[in-house]
Design a protein that fits this description.
By secondary structure, the protein is mainly alpha-helical. It has one domain: Orthogonal Bundle (Double Clp-N motif), CATH 1.10.1780.10. Helices cover 67% and strands 4% of the residues. It has 6 helices and 2 strands; from the N terminus they run ααβαααβα. Strands 1-2 form a two-stranded parallel ribbon. It starts with a helix and ends with a helix. Keywords: Repeat.
C-alpha cells in the first residue's frame, strides 16, 4: 500500500505535493491517524494563489467561512498516538 501511495504522490505537481506534505505535518501535529482531503484542502488554501484561490475569487466564496469550517472539522477528529499518519481512503481516491 505504501509503495502504491508513493506512485500516486509522484504524479502531483509541486504545488499540490507541497500542500500534501504540509497536510501530513498538520495531521501529525494534531495527532490524527489519517491525512484526509480536509487536511489537504486547508493546506492548498493556505498556500494561496492556486486554482482553489482563483475559483474562490471568481465565484465569490467566503474563504474565511470555508477556513473556519475546515478547522472546526479538524478539531472534532479523534486523536491517535500512531507515529506516522496514513493517507485516508477518500484522499487516495482523489489522488487517483
Amino acid at each position: 500500500m505504501e509503495h502504491y501511495s508513493a506512485v500516486l504522490l509522484r504524479r502531483l505537481n509541486p504545488y499540490c505535493a507541497r500542500a500534501l506534505e504540509g497536510a501530513a505535518s498538520l495531521c501529525q501535529t494534531r495527532a490524527h491517524a489519517e491525512i484526509t482531503p480536509e487536511h489537504w484542502l486547508l493546506k492548498l488554501l493556505e498556500q494561496g494563489e492556486g486554482d482553489l484561490t482563483v475559483l474562490g475569487r471568481r465565484y465569490d466564496w467566503d474563504m474565511d467561512a470555508i477556513w473556519q469550517s475546515l478547522l472546526g472539522w479538524l478539531d472534532n477528529q479523534p486523536r491517535s498516538v500512531r507515529s506516522r499518519p496514513q493517507l485516508a481512503q477518500p484522499l487516495n481516491a482523489l489522488l487517483k
